[in-house]
Amino acid sequence: MAHDQDHDHKHDHEQGDQHDHGHGHGTGHERKPGGGRHQHDHTALDWAVMGPHLESQAELFAPLYERAMAWLAKERTDPGLIVDVGSGPGVVACLFAETFPGARVVAVDGSGPLLERARARADRLGFGDRFSTLTGELPEVLGELDYPADLLWASRSLHHLGDQRAGLAAFAERLAPGGTLAIMEGGLPSRFLPRDFGIGRPGLEARIDAIEAEWFAQMREELPGAVTETEDWPALMDSAGLKHTGSRSFLLDLPAPAPDRVRAYVADRLTRVRDIYGEAMDAEDRAALGRLVDPQDEASVHRRADVFVLAAQTVHTAVRAG
Length: 322
Hints:
Low-confidence stretches: 1-43
Order of helices and strands: EEEEHHEHEHEEHEHHEHHE
Radius of gyration: 19 Å
Largest sheet: 7 strands, mixed
Number of strands: 11
Distance between the termini: 30 Å
Shape: globular
Structural class: alpha/beta
Number of helices: 9
Strand content: 15-25%
Mean pLDDT: 88
């Protein structure tokens, strides 16, 4: 699946955004604000082409994931089987293999090409003997797991299921007794520039947030079998028969001046914002965004000294009774 709000679905083609799931893949549905559907659904995107892009994004966010895993390791010290639900190209799944050297890891995704990248990455890093993949749509594909999971991780993939409560119940069913479910949902919108960066009206990113929030609501409404739920993740986990054990947010802080790979991520993210949401923006904001992504413009994120990445993602954990 994939959304950053895309989340890149991949649902998150945009890794790093509040609704994005960036590495999760499983069901991608997107529509441009106020109108036609924008193709981000994983049946339309060429994941073989998107793979390197998604992999580099996930690598940029690795410090955030590593901190989340260190927190999880205090609760779940010796998992035998870890399942990454909506794994994308496997960056996070391989981090799990590194963090838990005694565990087997299964990467689950709707995209075969992305799982090929995941397998190749695991082999390259020396985890191939305890790493496997499973291709199919969530949550049904989880029924094909050979064994229940001791730790099941879902990073921004759940919100691409129409019935999130039923999705959580399906996740819970695949847990071993005493097993932990960890979902990454929520957090804060990412920031890349000062409120006033000298072009157009101050507050551009806050206005983009509002447009993305509307897009996300439309995306949710149009999912097959969509059910409106209050996004109280601990309560929803409890309703799935699990015991909520904690919630914590993790920060990615890449300060200015940004290195080239950070600039490349920000430029890509803002270009995607322009392409997806540009029609919903006023002329002044569209012009400002155009300058920010134009590599020939001295004021672009490719050149300016004040570019940074500040992102926060929240993880919720719950345990199945032993």
